[in-house]
Amino acid sequence: MNSIFNRNIGVIGMGFVGLPMAVAIASAKKNYNVIGFEKNNNYGIKVCKNINNKIFPIQSEDKILKKKFINSIKNKKFYATTDLNQIEKCSTVLVSIGFDFHSKDSSKNIIELFKKLYSILKNKTLLVVETTLPPGFSEKIILPIINKNEKKINYVYSFERIMPGENYYNSIVNNTRVYSTLNTDSKKKFLHFFSKIINIKKFPMSEINSITTCELTKVLENSYRAMNIAFIDEWVKFSTNNKININGAISEIKKRSTHSNIMRPGIGVGGYCLTKDPYFMNYSANNLFKSTNRFPFIDLSLKVNRNMPKTSVNFLKTIFKNIKKPRLLLLGISYKQNVKDLRSSPTLILKKILLKLNYKIDTHDYFFDKKNLNNKLKINSYNGIIFCVPHNKYKSLPLSFFKKKYIYVDLSMTFGIKKIENLRKKKINIIQLGSY
Ligand SMILES: NC(=O)c1ccc[n+]([C@@H]2O[C@H](COP(=O)([O-])OP(=O)(O)OC[C@H]3O[C@@H](n4cnc5c(N)ncnc54)[C@H](O)[C@@H]3O)[C@@H](O)[C@H]2O)c1
Question: Which CATH homologous superfamily contains domain 234-432?
């Protein structure tokens, strides 16, 4: 095989995972050429156009990622297309598309994609699937599609652990990675390729001896986190209703190394992964394994997490109970700090509930609003300024930003105990969910 073919890498899905991964590959010393693939629809066409015009289609705080993105397009190491047939030029293909059960089309989309890949890819192409999948999906659905007849695709499952935000790029190249595959040829190719992209000396790869276990690792990882978040919510409700300082208790518990990941009070869980991955277990048990095992902790956790913004609503209701139609400014609408991503945003759920209760609601988010926050405050009058997402720019607001005329409510641990104490010394009325 010629060397150009060996250097051509395809990444399918130019979203929050695939795009930065494509940039990391194009930026590797190995001199790879990356082709990013998107769906052939209006959205995909727009994404490709932006990428090819050096417009980063995802808002990100990470300057390193943006710089490397522009350089890789400028240096012709990376371009994007909706023409999947071009994948035949690639010796290695990564799949980073989304998959969920919110729509029937999602299963159809992924199955259709693997059928097309099988028809286009050359024998022994390295195919690395990063998409989070229900355990058993590779072995029971994907492999029968791509490993039939004579043509054999070198299949590796290796889920992604990227963290969009300030250290976005770093979270790809300096992060632990788990993988599983079927044969030594795939393993050799995979390790050779990834050793050029990520810092495997410092973050060695972990091999899992079953693809299904590897898929389950990711789902368990995210289910554990979702459950951990849900667990604290009932304690927050009790503490809020009875004026107990749950944050003080949590600070003490966190000092024990075995308990340091206990969660803090918060507005809720959003984003793409924690709201959908845990559902995969019941799907797998039911459909892929025909098992009678069920996951009631997961069901309960997801239900609690979906309703979590209501804890904040009740908190706000007690604070503004004497005002007829409270007018609030919600700060931060993305699903988490320092990302421009609205998927399942708890602030937007909070807003919807408050509007139904006749509150007047305005929002501001540095990632979506062109309007300066101070101007917004000058033009409109509010009863309360509510910190919903701890973006860095909210965290670092100077003491001079805070005025005595407003009530400030911190729903998301935007401020530490010291800043809250300093503000209170200046007679600023600030209240934090979980602190008394
Ligand atoms: N976002 C995260 O932080 C994160 C972290 C770890 C793992 N994951 C997992 O990675 C996967 C991708 O997540 P994401 O956040 O990048 O999703 P995303 O929605 O941002 O990106 C997926 C992209 O794939 C494209 N796509 C869908 N079907 C396609 C097809 N048939 N051909 C070409 N392109 C197609 C979509 O148009 C979209 O742009 C998911 O399984 C997710 O659970 C995400």
Answer: NAD(P)-binding Rossmann-like Domain (3.40.50.720)
